[in-house]
From TrEMBL:
It is found in: Cell membrane. Part of the ABC transporter FtsEX involved in cellular division. Residues 184-299 form the ABC3 transporter permease C-terminal domain. Keywords: Cell cycle, Cell division, Cell membrane, Membrane, Transmembrane, Transmembrane helix. The chain crosses the membrane at residues 21-45, 177-206, 227-255, 275-298. This is Cell division protein FtsX.
Amino acid sequence: MRLAFILGETFSGIRRNLSMVVSVILVTFISLSFVGTAGLLQLQINQMKGYWYDRVEVAIFLCTETSGAASCAAGAVTDEQRTAIQDLLDSPTASAYVDSYEYESQEMALDIFREQFSNSTMSDTVTAEQLPESFRVALINPEQYEVVNEMFSGMPGVEVVSDQRELLETLFTLMNIASVVAVAVAVVMLVCAILLIATTIRLSAFSRRRETGIMRLVGASKTMIQLPFLAEGVIAALIGAAMASVATWAVAHFFVGDWLTQQYPGTGFISGVDALLIIPLLLIIAVVLAAVSSMLTLRRYLRV
């Protein structure tokens, strides 16, 4: 009986303030969609770090005729210098850090360059002599790059030792900035949702002040009077959170998991299953914010 009464009063209040309730749903949907997007970005960043950090290579670029490094003062790398570098890679000292390595000649570097820049006119103007030879080194532990860098930097014939993680860190930094921006927008939108929920509850309490007065006179408890108003805000927020959850899952499943995976098959992407980790958080945020906002409003505008 009490449950039927509470539900009846709740949906009656929703009907009376339908436009405000719809506004709460839409604002909650948009704000939690930004929260979901930020969560997906963080999951993708962690996924890419785990995927790429295990595959990054250290590139030991060898001197060319045009190299300006101090170790290249004598000109292009010689056969003796190249052999000395390879011997060090094969030595027990380096073997503790080096998992494997491959030699890339200038001709191989040119083929790779032309493949990467096939749509640019640069591919026709660059020659093999302009590109450096290199050893592509896979490390046992990518975090030990500095050890390998110190080992080979400054060797005769070595122009520079480059760690691909530097490029990845730039990408991850940009993705983290995008995630922070999404969270900031979400916070602003959540504040708007809280204010809308408070306004909706206040209008509902004002429009039903006569009913609540009668309920006080007949001895209804404080909880019985306040629960329908509280339920209005929670239901509206939950509907918005459910919509945001569907949108978050759809982005992860169709855009990231399907489309991006097909476009970039060599990259590890998240999927719709990963988005399921975020959905409970969105629902919890919606319930907590709606409940807190409703309770504070009821204490002020519905004194029982």
